[in-house]
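dumping this here before i forget
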Amino acid sequence: MNAFPKLHKYDGLGLAELVRTKQISPAELVEYTIARIETYNPKINAVIHKMYDKARKAAENKLPEGSFMGVPFLLKDATDTVEGEPTSSGSSILRNIPRLRDNEIVQRYRTAGLIFVGKTNLSEFCLLPYTEPKAFGPTCNPWDLTRTAGGSSGGSAAAVAACLVPLAGGNDGGGSIRTPASCCGVFGLKPTRGRTPSGPEVGDLWRGFAQEHVLTRSVRDSAAMLDAIAGPDVGAPYWAPPIEQPYLQEVTAEPGRLRVAFTSHPFLGKDVHEDCKKGLEATVHLLEQLGHDVVEAAPKVDKEAFSLAFLTVIAAETRAEVDSLSSLLGRKASLSDFETGTRAMALLGNTLTAGEYAKALNYLYASARAIGSFFENYDVLLTPTLSQPPTPIGSLQPSKAEHFLIGLQGRLNAAWLMKVCHVINALANKIFDFMPYTPVFNVTGQPAMSVPLYWNESNLPIGMHFVGRFGDEATLFRLAGQLERAQPWFNHTPPGFSALGR
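structure:
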């Protein structure tokens, strides 16, 4: 251990190489990681469930010789279900209920050689772009402890940014990997629809809007992990096009001269902060220096119609999830069991007809077709990931009046009042104003990534959002590798998280 006092300066593949060459043992890595979590997690509240005993046991046993053999890893406490461990989904009613088996993504993580040391904080049922669940408290941004880490994978992003682990699990149904990646200054890629498995409990997540992957500090860790977990599982309803070569090889391949469209015009929100525009301008200049053709252009999105349709689908999915919890709880779930945001979505979902749900899906699918045609002329689309730098903790929460109205409607069981009072629209507008770009590409199913290329004068990270053609993560990894070489960010870490942690 003394020979490597700064193991947090390695990425996951770097640590695995140390293990393979017997320069360090998995057990030593686990103890080092536990020490860092115990030292720094009280500051940021990223890890909400510890699995230290199982991690120590796993480290002493023979590990699969995968790409990340012996590397400590944090799972997102949502769809990453582990046999015998609870999966809270950010909700107090699930925090003590152990699950019966590993799901497919967890099995693939194990096969890659990862050692699970714990699970990370998230918004309740992954619904919100900030991580402030009542059950566990807010996750703080390592760059400024008064600011949001983003969501819903905020705990994973904060843990990676603070170098507790080199990579951590996430999923993305409206921006839940890319949003916290932007807030915390790490790399986050949402794969193509169907690229990673969601079974065996579900066929797809949020009608295919949500995909599983990881948050990392290096591009190559993200690529190597996607190589390890990609591919359909048994019974998958669909899967992404096959790849030509491993993604890890793409990271060091030159992307060639790409035709890149860019825009700062928000697809769903109203305004974009000047700092985000400055980051976009700097990124456009960098791309031009690297020899790419950069053109200001963007697909057309009807903000109001798209937002309403997206909200309709998520509200219906939320209602279905709430109603399905009875088998886990041993009783029927009550709306009083949930936070305001979840309750509001479930109430709205209860007012919807099957026809409204189908109409919303059909509109979104038609929109995806139209947006797909835009990419016939461009290799990549560039936007800011978010409309703002990381906002103060609590600033995106429902107001006291909104809390009261939603609580009243729940007590009266008068879900129809939700539509009449337009409370849900006010909540949704606040969310879409913060994340006006990312949900569009959950609907289209295209791969998209947030790349940490800009920090403002307050030293807050502002991610840049790159979208590729359907099935074309390869181009994104080539471009990300080129950007990482041209403007390295790996050693740009939050101050105050550098000590060994003992």
